[in-house]
Every structure is written in C-alpha cells, then in structure tokens.
Design a protein that fits this description.
Layout (H helix, E strand, L loop, with lengths): L2 E5 L8 H11 L2 H4 L1 E5 L15 H21 L3 E5 L4 H17 L3 E4 L5 H7 L2 H13 L2 E4 L2 H10 L5 E3 L20 E6 L8 H9 L6 E6 L5 H13 L4 E3 L5 H10 L2 E4 L10 H8 L3 E5 L4 H4 L7 E3 L4 H13 L1 H18 L2 H30 L4
Helix pairs in contact: 3-4, 4-6, 8-9, 8-13, 11-14
Amino acid sequence: MKKLLIVGATPPPVHGCSVAIRLMLDSDLARRYRILHLDIADRRNLDNLGRFDFTNVLLGLRHGLAFVAMLLRGRPDVVYLILSQNRWAFLRDLVFIIPAVLTGTPFVAHLQGGRMVPFLRETDGLTRRLAVWSLRKAARVLALGECFRDDLLAAVPDVKVEIVPNAAPRVAGQSPVRRDGETVHVLYLASLIPSKGFPDLIEAALRLEASNVRFTFAGSPVGEEALRAIDRAKSLAPQMFEFVGVVEGERKRALLESADVFAFPTWYEYEAHPFVLLEAMAAGLAIVTTDWAAIPETVRDEQEALVIKPRDIDALVGALNRLCSDRELRMRLGQAARTRYLAKYTTDAWIDRLAAVFDSVIVSNEAEPAVLTHVARVPE
C-alpha cells in the first residue's frame, strides 16, 4: 500500500483549509493509501493565521522537525500540502517543501485559495523567487477552478496544473421540502469576516420590502469591524437577526435543512471555491451569491443561483426580495443546485480526482529513476 503524507490543519478553528483536511482524513483515501498526517493547526482564533508572531514561529519549527521525522521514518510515496498565499505563512511552508525536495519525495501543492498570482506580484523579490521555485518543484499544483489556471500559468509557465474543485458531504438525504406560507429563513454560514459580505447582507436585510424574513448568521466574528456590524444588527432589528456562532455536525445539518435561502455575498480576497456554497447546494437551498473567484463556475446565474456583482447592496436587496416573495423560484433554484452538486461536487468525485493525481505522481516518480539508470548504462 502506497503511503500518503498529508500536511494540514484540522478544525478548530474552522476555515476552508481545515475543512478540506478533515474531509480528506474522513474519506475513503485510507482504503487506497496508508495515510500519515501531520496536523499543523494553531488552535487559537482565525486572527492568528498567517501572522508573524512568536507562537507561530515556534509552531513552524516544531512542525518542521516533525515533518522531517515523518519523511525519514515513514518514507511516504507522495506528500500533499496546502500552499499558503501570504508571505509569513508561505515562508513557514518552506520547512516542508525544502526537506521534501532534498529527500526526493514528490509533493502535491494545493492552492486552497485564489490569491497566489497577486501574492507573487505583491511580495518581496526573495519571497517571490522562493515561491516560484516551490511551484516549479511541485510534482503537481492543484487549483480550484479554471479561472485560476491561465493566471497561474502566465506567472509560472512550466508548472504542472490540475483543476480539482472542492466538494462537500451530503448534508441532507434529499432535497428538503421547503415550507409554504411561513417566514422565509435566510442563512449565512461562514466566518464572520467583513469581506465575506455579511455586513452587506445585514444592510440589505434592513432595506427589504418583505417583512416575513429572518436571518441566521453562523460563524465566528473576526475583527472589530465584524463586531460593530453585529452590534448594529442587534440594536436596529433584534427580532430579524440571530447570531449563533460556529456550528458543526448535527447543528449545521439542522440549520441547512431549516433554511430556505443561502446568502453569501463574498468579496474575500482569498476566496476560491467555498465549501459553504457546496454545502448549500447539497442541501437544496436557493442561493444568492457573487460573481467572484470560482463561484460562477459552480453556480450559474438564474440556473442554480442568483449571482450578483460583489459589494452591490442594491442588487443584493433585489435578489433577496425576489427569493423571499417567490416560492417557486426558491424551489427551482434549490433543486437545480442540488442536481449540479450531485453531478460534480460530491466527496466521492473529489477523492477520485485527488487519488488520480496522487497515483499519477507516484507512477511518474517510480518510473523516473529507472529511466535514469537505463541511460547511465548505455555504452559510450
């Protein structure tokens, strides 16, 4: 059985990368490979991700030493890691990349975000060269959508890019039968980061024509701006808004199954292919979201969702008014979203795509030494 070393954080805290690692560890990859896992989680809150501080430095050194030990003792056939897209977090990643390169262990770098090309453009020269070197040394670089492929290849032409979009578990057994004639329940399910659009959603809610609407925000607030937006919502319309914190497991399932609409007006700079959107699709929810990152590849306007421009609160108000007043539209969009999820974004399909990449890398790595040996023995 081939060995796969997965480097990545598990929740908590909950964010896209930790969700991806948890899904991988809980999947049937363990039936295909012997899984080794290095958990690099920082159990503090999301504010500490990618920052330069003493604790992060110590964690990076500790994880780097643990990684080297796992390389030497476990002898993995391939390493999987999520490549960071900001300076300090990327420099931490070098404690995994450099030992893998020095030991000849192939690694697959997954870009669980959409900011690699801006990062290469904006960072300092030394970090840029190290990042380009790392991308070129990767056996494969996985991107989450076709929208990222051309930009990446323009920046680093000789990178081996594969498109592997995210997936979500089946949070509902079937497309739920939505209620008729009751209050419309709108759900926001993500970290309460301002650029993920939740303050825009609060502003839109306060301007709605419909009165039979309630909003649930599930996620942890990040930063003072987020706390101010929450306080404003509670002070202006406490009966309309509910903030329930981070939800997981059965609580998340219950929220998804109780909702009628999923609202996610994101313009987050690291957004790529959000898991929460796939969870909403799996639950058969009507969706309003933004034309941002790989979202338009996932749900199409007027087919599986209402897709608006980022930061356009007027458009968000209009979309919510349509969805809240038209049950047939909600049902049509929700059913179409679930059908598209089943066709493209189940965890089984995702694991098959990942395994195909890992198998290809392992085969290539095993074949290469044989070719070199054969060439070396050719008589002069």
